[in-house]
Amino acid sequence: MKIQLKYFASIREALGQGGETLEVAATTVGALRDELIARGGAYAQALARGKAVRVALNQAMVGDEASPLSEGAEVAFFPPVTGG
The whole model's pTM is what? Predict the structure, then answer.
């Protein structure tokens, strides 16, 4: 299925791009993250499972494991934001 990916803040800087359109085999957001990590290099570092990464699916915050993907979905990855 084809989906839209968006990357923000330090993830965007690490990957050198703000987004991309991909054909993926993943059916959940968690599987998508694993598919991107498997690309290696900057993807593996920026999206590593040990890192705190927030995910939005079609502009709604989701947990990344079981959230189902559908054709044309927009998935955004970004680090948690703190302020004070």
Answer: 0.91
| Residue 34 · residue 26 · CB < 8 Å | yes
Write out pLDDT tens, residues 23-52. 999 999 999 999 999 999 999 999 999 999
Residues with Cβ within 8 Å of residue 61, at least 6 apart in sequence: 54, 55
- Tabulate helix, strand, coil % of the chain (nearest 5): 25, 30, 45
CA-closest candidate to residue 77, choices 35, 41, 46, 34: 46
Q: What is the CATH code for 2-78? A: 3.10.20.30
